[in-house]
Write a structure and sequence with these properties.
The protein is globular and about 45 Å long. The protein has a single domain, classed as NAD(P)-binding Rossmann-like Domain (Rossmann fold). 42% of the residues lie in helices and 13% in strands. The protein is built from ten helices and seven strands.
């Protein structure tokens, strides 16, 4: 990619962004299905510029010189947000548990002229989260924006029957990942932001945080907790020039959704007022809007991004 004159850089246009990004991520419709099902990143030939660029465009400037920290960013919503922030000029420090996938995402961003660093981190372990945040500060100097997105679906079944303890797919595991992970992340992010006197944190909740879920009670409970933590942290830090918010995705075509509801998502699609299922890029766009300076008076808000299903 040729170097661009900074004066010529401008934010990407909104029209056609979602379709272009999907092609960028997969290279084909088959690639999209593979990625949504949890497959590896597509190895097909990729364009040599950001997917939303026009001829001679450079990286956008909306978040230029901002340092963005993202958890759970090796697939789905987290990956889309990593791409989106980097494409708008941010320096992105992101994590996940899948080393090879994280490094491949970082290389792709670098090849397109963006800046990012991957660090393998398990948000269930506070010491790992602490090192992750500290390494971000060591690498880029600060944390301006944090998107705490790491999450799992947890065990399926009635609360009376689910496995309570276990390293994977238990009640304790989903709470450790979805709730404890947010607590650990905010604890260490807030220390950096308070020293700096500014910052934005966005946490990933869920539409299932706004009601019950017969077969996904543990997941629903973990996301209810995320909204409570978000609102409490927002009240405690608004006077410090730190904004804390959350985003509640509806049905979004990710590996997690397909594990929860199966590969055939047509029933969910038909039931949505918008006539479609959400895409990771839809949620990423909402996160960028929440993190932007124009949203500076928003504190403690949970934004539902669901195509109208919660209306």
């Amino acid at each position: 990619m040729t170097e661009q004159n900074p004066k010529e850089m401008r934010p990407h246009p909104n029209d056609g962004v979602v379709a272009a990004r999907r092609a960028f991520l997969t290279g084909s419709a088959a690639g999209l299905a593979s990625l949504a099902a949890g497959g590896a990143l597509a190895d097909t030939a990729q364009p040599d510029r950001w997917p939303w660029q026009r001829e001679n465009d450079g990286i956008g400037s909306r978040f230029r010189d901002r340092v963005v920290l993202i958890t759970g960013a090796t697939s789905g919503i987290g990956r889309a947000a990593t791409e989106a922030f980097a494409g708008e000029g941010a320096r992105v420090f992101f994590c996940g548990r899948r080393e090879s996938r994280g490094q491949r995402i970082a290389r792709r961003i670098h090849d397109l002229g963006g800046e990012s660093t991957f660090m393998r981190t398990d948000v269930r372990e506070e010491e790992q989260v602490r090192r992750f945040v500290e390494k971000c500060v060591e690498t880029y100097g600060t944390v301006d924006i944090a998107f705490n997105n790491a999450g799992i679906e947890g065990p399926r079944g009635d609360v009376s029957a689910i496995e309570l303890r276990g390293e994977e797919q238990s009640y304790r595991d989903v709470m450790r990942t979805n709730t404890d992970g947010v607590v650990y992340s905010m604890r260490h992010e807030l220390r950096v932001m308070r020293d700096r006197g500014r910052g934005v944190i966005v946490n990933t909740a869920s539409m299932l945080a706004h009601g019950g879920a017969e077969e996904w009670g543990a997941y629903s409970a973990s996301k209810h907790a995320v909204i409570g933590l978000t609102r409490s942290a927002a009240r405690a830090n608004a006077g410090r020039n730190i904004r804390v918010l959350s985003v509640s995705p509806g049905a979004v075509d990710t590996a997690l959704l397909r594990r929860m509801y199966g590969e055939d998502l047509s029933r969910i699609e038909r039931a949505n007022p918008s006539g479609r299922i959400g895409r990771p890029e839809d949620i990423a766009a909402a996160v960028l809007n929440l993190a932007a300076p124009e949203s500076g008076y928003l504190h403690g808000v949970d934004v539902q991004v669901n195509g109208g299903s919660g209306a």
